[in-house]
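Lab notebook page, bench 4
Experiment: in silico fold of construct C2
Operator: M.H.
Input chain length: 71 residues
Purpose: comparison with the prior construct
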Amino acid sequence: MTTSNDNSKSTKILQDAVDSSIQHYQAVENFLDEHADELAPENARRIREKNIHLKHSIQGLQAEIKNETTP
């Protein structure tokens, strides 16, 4: 059985991961906005796909945080 302190620690770790992932996601989006036309189309497509996967991961982490914090 987990305690509320354990949940609080887990939530903090998850939130740190979300924050870091969002920063990375935004940095990649900014890079693509500025430089996508300089990349080979296939490379730009792959980077966009990876960022979509990252966005889905962020959403999953956010859902997990919600589950941790919902009584």
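Observations: The chain has a mean pLDDT of 93. The CA atoms of residues 2 and 13 lie 15 Å apart.
Next step: discuss at group meeting.
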